[in-house]
Design goal:
Blueprint: H1 12-21, E1 24-31, E2 34-44, E3 53-58, H2 61-64, E4 72-83, E5 96-106, E6 109-110, H3 113-128, H4 141-150, E7 154-159, E8 163-169, H5 176-186, H6 195-204
Antiparallel strand pairs: 1-2, 1-4, 2-3, 3-7, 4-5, 5-8, 6-7
Helix pairs in contact: 5-6
Amino acid sequence: MRRTPAFTLTDEAELRRLIEQNPWITLVSHTSEGLVASHYAVLLDDSRDELAIVGHVGRPDERLHELGEHEVMVIVQGPHGYISPSWYDADPAVPTWNFTSAHLSGVPEIFDAKENLRVLDRLVEHFEQHVDAPRLMRGTTEDSAYADAISAGTVGFRLVPTRIEAKSKLSQNKPAETVDRIISELEGDGPYASEALAAEMRRVRGEK
C-alpha cells in the first residue's frame, strides 16, 4: 500500500472499529504454488489484550494457503467510493477514490478442534444476534449435533499481526469547504452517494 503520512492509520481503537464493522476479509498467501486468495468472516479476538483476529477457512483452503507455514496477509476494507473533481473548487483537479483499508500480516496460529468450535460458536452468535429469531449453534440438540459434525470441514485460526499497514484516505488534505461539499454529495442522491463513506469522513475530522 502506498504510504502517505497524512492518511496513515495507526490508532488501535480505530483499527479495531474497522475490523469489527467490516468483518468480511480477504486472506492472501504467497505459497509454493503462487498467490492464493480467499474470503472469510473474522472477529476480534476477545481473549487477547493485543490486536488479534480469529476466524476459519473451509477445507481444503488450509492446504491451498499452506496455513500456519508462513506469513499471510488479511485485507480489511472499509467504506470507499468515487470522488468527482466536480465536487471541488474551480482549480484544476482530477478524480480520486476515498477509502479506509488495513493490511494485517503475520503467521497464523492453527486451532485444534475444540478451539475451532469455540470460535465458530462466537461467529454464529455474533451475526445471529441481529436477527429476529436467532439460530445459534447450540440452540437445539439437532443444531448442536449438526454443527459438531460440519465443523470438521473447517480449520480455525488466530492471527496476531506482526505488521500492520493501514490507511484512511478521506480528503484530509483538502480545505474544509471542499470536504463539506464532498460530504454533501455523498449524503445526497447522486450516482456516487454513500452515506457510509460520508460518515467515515465526518469521523476523521472529529464529528463522532
